[in-house]
Amino acid sequence: MTADVAVETTPEIPLWNDPNHPVATRVDALVAAMTLEEKIAQLYGVWVGASDQGGEVAPHQHDMEEAVDLEALLPTGLGQLTRPFGTVPVDPALGAVSLMRSQARITSANRFGIPALAHDECLAGFAAWGATAYPVPLSWGATFDPDAVRRMAAAIGRDMRSVGVHQGLAPVLDVVRDARWGRVEETIGEDPYLVGTIGTAYVRGLESAGIVATLKHFVGYSASRAGRNLAPSSVGARERADVLLPPFEMAVREGGTRSVMHAYTDMDGVPAAADETLLTGLLRDTWGFEGTVVADYFGIAFLKTLHGIAADWADAAGAALHAGVDVELPTVKTFGAPLVEAVTEGRVPEALVDRALRRVLGQKAELGLLDPDWSPVPPALDGVDLSDPEALRGRIDLDRPENRELAREIAEKAVVLLTNDGTLPLARPRRIALVGPNATEATAVLGCYSFPRHVGVRHPEVPVGIDLPTLYDTLTAEFPDADITVARGTGVDDGEVSGIGEAVDAARGADVVVAVLGDRAGLFGRGTSGEGCDAESLTLPGAQQQLLDALLDSGTPVVTVLLAGRPYALGRATAESAAIVQSFFPGEEGTAALAGVLSGRTSPTGRLPVSVPGSAGAQPTTYLGARLAQASEVSNIDPTPAFGFGHGLTYTTFAWSDLVAHAEEAPTDGAFALELTVRNTGERHGTEVVQLYLHDPVASVVQPVQRLIGYTRVPLAPGEARRVHVEVPADLASFTGRDGRRIVEPGDLELRFAASSTEPRLTATVALTGAERQVDHTRRLHAVFTQEAVEGV
């Protein structure tokens, strides 16, 4: 390490730097030694961008905040560095050098030598230039494969940790309540159990790599009215408890997450950032969470500017601290001078500052940032000659082959085949008409939090940094003997129709049409999907439906392929397309995955994490609707989906049989044991996803008609059969009763084994007996599945 990044140490180790003492003891000693200004400095971050020349990070000038003077701030310390890699394009090696030098400056500037905790986005991979762009969370949900998601998250975490990042702002555990919401692509789906299991797997993977996972957005953000971003949320206590909170509860209990980000929204007039019953009473006192609560960006200031519950910045800071927010992000605003003044004047108790500080310093101690041998040199630069930073350019690879292999695995498992009349897989077509705005668009596979779409679009002079083959590229490789004609037809959302005639001519001259439609990810209205890119209806953007209808009229079979961030109503194409293939922003390996499914090189195994609507205007609706939410004769709006949650076809067929319930009754504190056989009756290898839904015919409060309580993937060779066993705890029948307590009621239940929410295969009618039973956060959360081969097949 060069002299300019050396950190001075003294022969005597202060108590807070001595790892031989318990963390709490070290933290108490450090808190007692700090001034008020030094304490508060640990509770905020500064938004920075790393230098592409290896110099120190520079404060990011954001249009919502005034410039920050690092020189003035650093003598008292700095709690966090915000998005050093995710703010401007920077070569990873030079970015690591930049962060290293900045950490050295930070530690040398404050008298306790405390480094900052660096965080970055990792919603669909590490949001850094040149890092692997994985599929978006909605694709994670489509895999129904927690283990694959865990392995992906571990890889993301290792890359982040290697360059000096400590915390990742993911996963999003918001449950989709309205598909018009722009951030649907960032979610895992519309079912709380699917969101909870996949999200918890992501947390485990990220934390296994030493990265602090951050659950967001706690809670209710996705329930905004009319699907508008940052709009009021109308959520009752029961919907909050039974739909929105369970994924967070699962991730806290089972994932080992060390951070939670509050939501922007309010519930019944109380903003999440100022909700003590949520951030302290529920999260900490009930669930036992011991990590840090961080602000969503500018969320504390919003208590004054958007919510109107604070008169000034000090009021906002005090309200957030009192509620249980520990860290202001992305930059200093309310937790700086306004909070110092408020504490000095007695408006905010210093004890609240100390409470948050202990959590922040405790986390830094656990990360090794207070240890005497801590070094600002990240693992990727350990032992490297740093005398010539420019010579390091290209040294760190954040898109290694093993990353891409994981990205391809997730992308392939997430492809959902919605319909197929036998056209797929394509049997070596001679002429293919490749039509649509996303057919030759390289970034059509990326979500709004991928680096190229989130940051790169503001730097068009910088190469994208990763290989992004278009679907044209991968289809050309997949079908080398085919004549592929390309016609754009129309743009994603420009409404242009002048190219539709050319597209139809191409279709008429082809054996098959592959129509590649969908979204363009962006931010705040600069896309058709993404944060702030909400939809008025679920009609395909622009003139894409008009293009699709014209292609259907051409007389040539049309395979509709969707690269999108949300589900769309497809009109007559639902019934008239030869096949429909749905992919939710599948990442850099996405077009290869799609080409493999179209050719039959791989068999689709994805299942819908969100319902595909039957009509564009029947929102908000999800499969979790109660009886009144279903189609009826007293309304002219039919919310029935075209394809229900959990739906997905394969290139083979399966038979389900021999359901056995070992007991038809169990006490309210008991469990049911069931088993069934699943057999591949087709001629190709395939994976069936056995989904288990609970139907409660009579309950003391209105229930969804059904809800997912378990699932398992069953891979089968042709002719192979497996016996699937499942234990279903009575706890899974619990819900929030009339008095707000979670209860298990006696009575009849239906356990539906299904291929989707609309395709039940086998049903067991069972009964819970005995007294009503109250359960809490220690209840069992999972049905336990096991599988065994059926002999003699």
List keywords for this structure.
globular; GH; six-stranded mixed sheet; alpha/beta; 793 residues; Glyco_hydro_3_C; eight-stranded mixed sheet; Beta-glucosidase; disordered N terminus
What does this protein structure show overall?
There is one protein chain. The chain is an alpha/beta fold. The chain is 26% helix and 19% strand. It has an 8-stranded mixed beta sheet with strand order 2-1-3-4-5-6-7-10. It has a 6-stranded mixed beta sheet with strand order 11-16-15-14-12-13. α6 runs parallel beside α7 (192-208). 58% of the residues are buried. The model is unreliable at 1-10 (pLDDT under 50).
The oligomeric state is single chain
Q: Specify the helix fraction band.
A: 25-40%
Would you tell me the overall average pLDDT?
96
**Total strands:** 28
Contiguous low-pLDDT stretches (5 residues minimum) are 1-10
**What kind of sheet is the major sheet?**
8 strands, mixed
β-sheet strand percentage: 15-25%
End-to-end CA span: 63 Å
- Using the alpha-carbon principal axes, give the shape: globular
Task: Count every helix, treating DSSP H or I runs of 4 or more residues as helices.
Answer: 21
Please give the order of strands in the largest beta sheet.
2-1-3-4-5-6-7-10
Give the class from helix and strand content and strand pairing. Answer: alpha/beta
Radius of gyration using CA atoms only: 27 Å
Protein name: Beta-glucosidase
InterPro entries: Cellulose_deg_GH3 (IPR050288), Fn3-like (IPR026891), GH (IPR017853), Glyco_hydro_3_C (IPR002772), Glyco_hydro_3_C_sf (IPR036881), Glyco_hydro_3_N (IPR001764), Glyco_hydro_3_N_sf (IPR036962), Ig-like_fold (IPR013783)
Family: Belongs to the glycosyl hydrolase 3 family.
Domain Fibronectin type III-like: 688-757
